[in-house]
Amino acid sequence: ARDVTLRHEAELRLMESTRALEDALRRQKELNETQRKFVAMVSHEFRTPLAIIDGAAQLVLRHGARMGPGTVRDHQETIRAAVARARHLIETTLAAASLDAGAIRFTPGPVDLHRMLEELVAQRASLSKDHRIALRIEDGLPVIQGDQRLLHQVFNNLLSNAAKYSPAGGGIEVTARPDRNGAVVEVSDHGVGIPEDEQGKVFERFFRASTSAGIPGTGLGLNVAKELVAMHGGDIALASGGGTTTFQVRLPLAAPRR
Ligand code: ADP
């Protein structure tokens, strides 16, 4: 009887280690897949703005002397826009890498969402006149405890997506209101939208909806935003349909102690 028990134990242990090995192999495979997607994204997305900058700079260098001032300015603006795109790419990629490394510093302090959203909306309006952005702040919006820099990144990302995925001339609405135990911020646009069967995946790393084909992007921003909001003890949700796409961020008055 003792032999049988021993054999039984040995079998159990063998099964356990097989399962652990299978788990490790699966995780390794997932990691390889993530790395493959990452390299594909970086090589595609980073090359485009660099090629644009290179092309415009060469044109001005070679033919600048014979160009009218308007044409030179057009090329300079092309360069500036491509630099902004490259910078956004680098920042999003670095943020994702820092999250992976557990190297994001959360520095809590009072966050005046009203002021932050006002600044973000003004900034975006000065960058481009393509969209009309309406900001509505409801009475009683509380000052919350959070990390100013990280929340700025979250809302900047949502606003930049709203502009990127909707046509010039389209309206964007940003609203903030008090909630039972915190604040709710919503960013809505009337652009390409996200098909219902893809909505569950938009917060996954590298996922890009079928409606975003031809529009540059990394598929990293919303994943980063979700993690940053989670660090605040909040959550982010999406509703898209009937021509309107809304991202909703709920933030508690203060992040739970970690
Ligand atoms: P990306 O750099 O591709 O914009 P994000 O992580 O910010 O990456 O978004 C992931 C995907 O979600 C996008 O590729 C796009 O398909 C979809 N998406 C995000 N915001 C919007 C929006 N406002 N309207 C339509 N689709 C959106």
From TrEMBL:
Ranges for domain Histidine kinase: 41-255
Domain of life: Bacteria
Coiled-coil intervals, chain numbering: 7-34
Name of the protein: histidine kinase
Span within the parent record: 443 to 700 of 700
